[in-house]
Amino acid sequence: MKRLLFFVLIGAIAAFWWHSMQARENARQAAKRECEKFGLTLIDDTVERIHIGFGRSHGGGSTFVRIYQFEFTPNGARRYKGLVRMRGTTVEDIRMEPYEAA
Fold first, then answer.
1. Taking the complete model, does pTM exceed 0.70, yes or no?
2. Among 29, 38, 80, 101, which residue's Cβ finds the most Cβ atoms within 10 Å?
3. Residue in 69, 49, 66, 65 with CA at minimum distance from that of residue 57
């Protein structure tokens, strides 16, 4: 019985890790597309998770809600921040702080 519980726990951890990596990659791609849409540069081509919690999925069940932060620049001189809100592995919202165009 202990062995079964151990394998279930390991499986749950692996599933959470895989889901987290998928959500992070989707957030990174969304931030990159948003920056490209406005002629901006996504600094370091990466996002950083700053929050994780529980929320409702679009189907009514429970899912993880994650918020990722990224930095962008219009001209390389100054950094600005943006946020990507994920519900599960789906992008829910992208917000960028106001910036001065190059």
1. yes
2. 80
3. 65
